[in-house]
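A quick aside before the break. I want you to see a complete sequence-to-structure record at least once, exactly as it would be stored in a machine-readable document. Don't worry about memorizing anything.
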Amino acid sequence: MARGVECPAIAELKSVLNIVFPSVETGTTRFPSPADRHTSGIAMDVMLDIREPEEKALADGIINVLIRHHPQMQWSDIIYSDWNPDGSIFYYHIPGGGHGYGGKPLERNRYTGDTKHTNHFHIDWVDFGMKNPMPLYLQDPYQVSVAAEKTGFTSAIRSDLEAIKSGQRLPGPPARSTPSWLWGWWKITADGDDYYYYFGLAGFVAWTDDKPANSSVPIVQPQNKGIFSMSGDSELDVAWDFIGGGQTKEHFKTAGSMRQMTGTSNRYGPLAALKQ
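That is the input. The structure line, written in tokens, reads:
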């Protein structure tokens, strides 16, 4: 297959993603120097950022579909990122099995090869046993494998992708995401004092006494951290790390709008929360 031409599997996957999610950008061939697997037409990037809760939830859903249909698709590897409970980033890859990739097939494996896959996930049909010899490798690294010639999976995956689009849950682990209305800074008033909570991704929450100078910047120096879990679409429970001789647990629910909440605490008085 000619350099810079999408392999059949990439072309078909790109087509169905563009049909179901026309607003999601996909990138396939490119021509850096030296060349890479995209140049060989066997890789694609799907531009969904883990810092945007809705985009990350969509990416997690699409990846679950790709895992579910791996027997038909035979892709080699997926690379993406997630959030650890402490707010740090977990970089991972999901090998399909074989083709020279290590790790447990169809499971998340820690990946430290690079830290670029936070604003997109990567999927490829690379076979490390099909590298082109030097100096051709610098211009076109890989030959197209039999797996990369796979087609005919559109109807199978499209129904699952449409289910994600309509908000249905698919079999498999749910996406670990924070509702977009909750994510960010909130002012919490308790017993006459103000505190500032930052709700991040993957259930991470932290607080400080200091009002944030910029509400678009995550918390940097928290006075305590905890974990929150959603209960339905508009209620959540917070469990703080042990501090001051005990553990504080709180329950919040929206109050009239998604920018206000009321809450209770096992250690303090009633809580009032306002989105910043």
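Two observations worth writing down. The radius of gyration is 22 Å. The longest strand covers residues 224-231. We'll return to this after the break.
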